[in-house]
Amino acid sequence: MSDTVLPPAAVESRERPRRWGEGLSLRWRQHAGILGALALFFVLYLFYQVSHPRGLTGQILIQNANEVFALALVSMAQTVPVLMAGLDLSVGAVMTLVGCIASHLIDGSPGEIALGIAACITAGAACGFANGCVVVYGRIQPIIATLATSAIYMGIALILRPTPGGRVHEDLSWAVTSDLREFAATFDLFDDGEASWLQPFAWIPVPLILLALIILLIWVPFIRSVTGRTVYAIGSSESAAYMSGLPINRAKLAAFTLAGLFAGLGGLFLALQTSSGNADIPQAGAYTLNSIAAVVIGGTSLLGGTGSAVGSMIGAMVLRTISFNFRIFDVAPLLQPLFEGLVLLAAVSLGGLKLLRLKNKLEVFR
Amino acid sequence: MSRTADMTITPRGLRLRPDDKPVVFAAGFVLLILLVGTGYTLYTQGSAPLLQPQYLVQQLQVGSFLGIVAAGLMVVILLGHIDLSVPWTLTAAAMMATAVGGPWAIPAGIAIGLLVGIVNGLGVAYLRVPSMIFTLGMNAVMRGLMVAHTGGFAPQTAATDLMQYLAVSRIGGVIPVALLVWLMVSVAVVMILTCTTLGRSIYAIGNRERAAYLSGIDTNRVILIAFALSGAAAGLAGVLLAGYSTKAYQGMGDAYLLPAIAAVVIGGTNILGGRGRYLGTLVGVILIVLLNSVLSIMQIPEAGRQIIYGCVIISMLLVYGRGARVNG
């Protein structure tokens, strides 16, 4: 844009302060969704903790973290296709399928358990990869392709677990669903969790650490790679991304595979948490639909191009905290779905306020 | 960009027009299902009950509930939106219809559906909330309202005689009344889509809302009406379904959303909106209903049915539902 008649000095003196300010406001706009969700979460959670009869204890924190984990991962899974302006209706089914596999495999010697975990993770990623192949090579719309594959995955899950049951390794199940001290004690690490340096962190629930690890080791490297940036670019404008020479097919395959991987990790944890596998079709559907809600609350646009899995994780926390609050205030269980629905509608309708700021009516349409 | 590419293909000889392809293939698949099912019954029982008119009419009667839901849903999908509130709109309409009872039962049920549809339309058109999430929220709200209303149990009230007549009876013992209701809904939808400005506006919005707005269409009003139609159709289906099972019950609509979406899409309607014919949806509904019925005759367990269901949707779409390559 600067190939005009302005001398370089003038350009510089005019642009430098503006660029700094613009950068800040851009960053603010990019993260406004996440920050809003985070604020909502803190308000709701503080409210919950203040009104909880027993106050903030480690046990309650652990319990909350356990209840959040599976939904958080399924929501993170949902985020990746949504960033490409697609939708993955199979995340709940992949979670259920991997949970059923886990209920068969996660037992026995440490070696067998390690192999079992690897098999579960691979199965999740393979389901996602299959979705990606149908979308990329079959050129079928993601929403309808994943609707079909979710039926297939649920069918396989039903074959594996016609009735709820199975078992998982008890020590492992206990270790990943409690705090860091218990985790260390279970596996005889760090003086059974009594090492002095560990004490400041010993209260942290293991699920929260796992979430942080998954974000730092999988999500952050992914979005910093060319493939990850391409996912965002596809969401903004697929044809522009294509014209820029970005690897579109690779990005789509990777995005769906990552979604399958996240959903599979969620299913693995759910199996460890409940010590069983259950091919429950309504439950899978509920997780899929809640994941869409969590993605939206977490500030990711369903139109693609903006958002983050971290936001969706916070969105999942917001959804779960709402139901924690119901428990505290003894809202009749019958009224809970009504309030959940109203909160969801209110949250998304607030987005309608931005219409008031539009200068050009055409901006309303995509 | 992808949609215009197909339009330019000119029909030559026996070559199918792109819009006819889904209808022809889906109809062919319906025949295939009947053949496979008949082969199975001939082999196991030595008879061919699937080819008897009673069986087919029975299937059409059962399919009319799904057909009415799919007709409404298709209008919304043609806009490029979706209505996920169908399950509990249907259930709420059924429960309210049986609760009101008397001569006002059917109007009450349809009015509930219409009301939910209007709220959906307001949220999607005027607040510009993505339809996927707004209708999902409305579904949760309706579920909450109905659970609170009934206490979580099946309501004790029964369907009125008129509702049962519409759903169960047969004129002259042959033609189900439900089928006639489906037929009337179908004619209405075809008329709206092909003969009115509303219908043309729906296709225009599905193709490019911005262009439709610039050509002077009040797009918000059209979206509102489309969602109202979808809600009313779900309400009508709920009223009929309550009549069929003589009462309303929790979760009676859960089995209708995904099959309805599948029927619309198998019928060749583009899930992104703007393209699709009602005839396709009609054949799609028949395909889904027959597939379910034949699979249960063949005593395939739930797991196998799910897998076959998924494979059928994918393979049908691989034949005629593929998008264009991205090329700038």
UniProtKB/TrEMBL annotation, chain A:
One GO molecular function term of this record is: transmembrane transporter activity
Membrane topology type, per the record? Multi-pass membrane protein
Q: Where are the transmembrane segments?
A: 28-48, 68-87, 113-136, 143-160, 201-220, 253-272, 284-303
Q: Where in the cell is it found?
A: Cell membrane
Q: What is its main location?
A: membrane
InterPro entries assigned to the protein according to its UniProt record, in alphabetical order = ABC_transp_permease
Q: Which domain of life is it from?
A: Bacteria
Alphabetically sorted, this entry's keywords are:
Cell membrane, Membrane, Transmembrane, Transmembrane helix
Under CDD domains, the record lists: TM_PBP1_transp_AraH_like
Q: Name one GO cellular component term.
A: plasma membrane
What PANTHER family does UniProt report for this protein, alphabetically?
Answer: ABC TRANSPORTER PERMEASE PROTEIN YPHD-RELATED-RELATED
Q: What is this protein called?
A: Ribose transport system permease protein
UniProtKB/TrEMBL annotation, chain B:
GO CC, sorted alphabetically, is: plasma membrane
The family database entries (InterPro entries) matched by this protein are listed as: ABC_transp_permease (IPR001851)
Q: Which residues cross the membrane?
A: 23-43, 64-84, 104-126, 174-201, 222-244, 256-272, 279-300, 306-323
Keyword Coiled coil applies = no
Localization (cell): Cell membrane
Query: According to its UniProt record, where is this protein mainly located?
Result: membrane
Q: Name one GO molecular function term.
A: transmembrane transporter activity
- Coiled coil regions, renumbered to chain: none
Name it: Ribose transport system permease protein
Report the superkingdom from the record.
Answer: Bacteria
| Membrane topology annotation | Multi-pass membrane protein
On whether Transit peptide is a keyword of this UniProt record, the answer is no
What does the UniProt keyword field contain? Answer: Cell inner membrane, Cell membrane, Membrane, Transmembrane, Transmembrane helix, Transport
